[in-house]
Design brief:
elongated, homodimer, DNA-binding, mainly alpha, Multidrug-efflux Transporter Regulator, Chain: A, Domain 2
DNA sequence: TAAAACCTGTGAGCAACTCACAGGTCAAAG
DNA sequence: CTTTGACCTGTGAGTTGCTCACAGGTTTTA
């Protein structure tokens, strides 16, 4: 299989295949005649695996780690369970934050029905947004102090 | 006000101030003596506005557009309403997708309680993930069990 | 007067691709 | 047998919104 073949088989962009190869998630052999990359069924499995893991929110370094463990004949599954558990917590946090945001946005849109447009007068840029309260202060007090 | 002053007043990283200046969201004057940037109360309003808009999910180009409309003495608010409506739809879509994901993850974690770890055998990398079904292809029959 | 803190602009790094470019290779058509 | 077009190669840049690093100039503090 050449790049385009494996890409089609996995339903991804050929550039993604090249990118994953660059990132050492795939390790194709080379055709000595023309230096083309040769992928086999195992590579396809790895690629499909990587895509599924990406859909679950795993990062490429995490996926690479899993693949390398598998290469070393260690079972990566316990690790996957851990990563998964962690990722689930993240997902639930993201859901909570987005629900907060949605709530505030719908409330704002409703309130704005009754507000004048407020052409800027040197003091106000857009009162629609300036009158927006800051988000819940609870656990994100120092979000800008560290990256 | 110098960079650090306005940054502190708005609660952001000084590098963010410099970045916004580079991006033409802020247009400080210059002290001719030392070429330092001088920000005033209007700049602070713009910066705070930009931060609030970012919290709402507006992009920097969108924010710049709003600020430029305000500079031209046009009311940006109707535009803000449109952008907002659009953004709200995005947020709701994101919430739906994350809820789908959470559902699948919790189901998977429960199912994995009963699955063997499955040391890789040349055919399988990690059955925990390989047995994960592909996500719903389209507008899945929904359930919103969460509020 | 020297050290610390702050200023300047620019360039790189992050994540995970995606696209562009320039040149090499191959299969089929003329 | 040559041309055409699709595919291959590697590398570098663009995306988004910052954040950090660097090297050198300025101001403040001790």
């Amino acid at each position: 299989m050449k790049v385009k073949d494996i890409a089609e088989a996995a339903g991804v962009n050929p550039d993604t295949v090249r990118f994953y190869t660059r990132e050492n998630l795939l390790k194709p052999t080379r055709n000595p005649d023309n230096n083309y990359q040769q992928f086999d069924a195992e590579d396809l499995r790895r690629l499909k695996f990587a895509r599924k893991a990406r859909q679950l929110g795993l990062s490429l370094p995490e996926i690479r780690q899993i693949l390398e463990q598998a290469d070393d004949h260690h079972s990566p599954c316990p690790m996957v369970r851990d990563v998964f558990q962690h990722r689930l917590e993240e997902v639930e946090r993201e859901i909570r934050e987005l629900q907060q945001l949605r709530k505030r946005m719908t409330a704002a849109l409703a309130a704005w029905q009754d507000m004048p447009d407020g052409t800027p007068d040197g003091h106000t840029i857009c009162r629609l947004i300036e009158h927006w309260d800051d988000p819940a202060p609870c656990c994100d007090a120092d979000e800008q102090s560290k990256g």
